[in-house]
Amino acid sequence: MILNPQFNNEVQHLGPASIRNSKFRIPFWGMDMNGGFGEKDREAVYRVIRERRDVRRFKSGPVPEAVLGRILTAAMQAPSVGYSQPWNFILVKDLEVRRKVHAAFQRANEEAKGLFAGERGEKYAALKLEGILESALNICVTCDRNRFGPLVLGRTAQPDMDLFSTVCAVQNLWLAARCEGVGVGWVSIIKPGELAALMGLPQGVVPIAYLCVGYTDSFAPEPELKTAGWLPQVPFSDLVYVDQWGRKE
Amino acid sequence: MILNPQFNNEVQHLGPASIRNSKFRIPFWGMDMNGGFGEKDREAVYRVIRERRDVRRFKSGPVPEAVLGRILTAAMQAPSVGYSQPWNFILVKDLEVRRKVHAAFQRANEEAKGLFAGERGEKYAALKLEGILESALNICVTCDRNRFGPLVLGRTAQPDMDLFSTVCAVQNLWLAARCEGVGVGWVSIIKPGELAALMGLPQGVVPIAYLCVGYTDSFAPEPELKTAGWLPQVPFSDLVYVDQWGRKE
Questions:
Q1: What percent of chain B has pLDDT over 90?
Q2: Which of B110, B244, B249 to mutate: most A Cβ within 10 Å?
Q3: In angstroms, what CA-CA distances link A43 with A46, A48, B176, B180, B207?
Q4: Which of A120, B52, B161, B165 has the fewest beta carbons under 10 Å from its own?
Q5: For residue A245, how many C-alpha atoms fall within 13 Å in the half-sphere facing its CB?
């Protein structure tokens, strides 16, 4: 039973809490469970997922090369359709370039403000939505739509799979950064065409994410837009169906 | 220095390996570093990212409700544009439904086979690309393009951000499953329109991912398409630019 990962869920709940929670528990049987992940490992994975935040407030100071290297390596370990690895990572350090990106954000954000009326518009205007200039660096994550040629395994029926692969890389990057204490914020209020021009992207390469990256004084306990009362959390049970859309178990 | 996360990279390398690797190291100073993530925690996060695989071979036996609940909760903790949480998760257990999805896969896969010529086509035909019928369950992850109405903060300049948010949820689900020892494989060789019809999706809701989920005998040491020689790994240095596309540091 101990060697069979699918029963681990039961094994976990054997024994009194004092033993289950003991630091000796993991070395004794936890290391071979669940595809090699012990209870503490799982806790770390769930915690990084739970405590990842969209960060818009940054401290001064650089992110060390070694940390950045680990974060980018994690991004490149994302799944990619047909193993096409369509991503690139442009590390935007130059302040002149960032000022131009910031101006593109401001233009798109002014347009957006006009769309939200009344109290909603006031709330929108009060939100801090980016940290382009004050973060340690920005990272533009792109997708090369012709990497390894036009024919890609797994893209024949769903041609946007390369975009989705690149998003998986962004999420890996985000989680890796969080466990390093590095904040990441995704700025989506920039017109993709303007961003592509500012980054000098060739034909066939599209920007997927523009990220602000750097150390931060704190990771908010909850998503900021939830705390600000912008939208409520959708309950778990409203999001899960069985066999067909709309069917509850 | 110990209290300042941005110096942890240096702190990590102080002291002989016997002390650094000791189990006493983490409780002593590791817990307050890097936004609360100690060295062991970071290792677990990087390991789950590195060891996640696209799984197509499954063992029989169900995934316990508690495990599935944790995996889905992790998915729902993904970032979403404007906190719109546009995702739903259809747990496809019924074998009749899965047979229809499998038939849709087979149709799309026959079309795909015709596109890869010669030796490439033979290699393609020999690959196992899905585990729809033999996995414990399938999960169709969808994106509601009108959740909370048509106007969403952060989607005004980039309307596909809701699709990307849903992909972030898929990647969270995938990583959470990996640390539970549960394999996940993304089947993208199905026409989205056919999948939407089979899942009964209403207007405005689109399928993003169709996942096979279940326990597996092993997680491959490397991506299967890399091992099979389908495509090579792209070197890190080819994927990273500075300030502009194509510029190396």
A1: 85
A2: B244
A3: 5, 9, 10, 11, 30
A4: A120
A5: 19
Q: What is the ipTM of this complex?
A: 0.88
Confidence of residue B8 (pLDDT cuts 50, 70, 90): very low
| Residues in CB range of B27: below 8 A, 6 or more apart | none
Residue A137 structure tokens: 């660096």
Size of interface A-B (CB pairs under 8 A): 339
- Please tell me the distance from the alpha carbon of residue B72 to that of residue B88, in angstroms, as a whole number: 10
Nearest residue of A to residue B77 by CA position? A50
Contact between B187 and A79 under an 8 Å Cβ cutoff? The reply is no
Residues of chain A in contact with residue B239, where contact means CB-CB under 8 angstroms, are 72, 76, 85, 87-89
pTM: 0.88
CB contact under 8 A, A231 and B35: no
pLDDT of A185-243, one tens digit each? Answer: 999 999 999 999 999 999 999 999 999 999 999 999 999 999 999 999 999 999 999 99
Structure tokens at A4: 């069979």
Which residues partner with A248 through β-bridges?
none
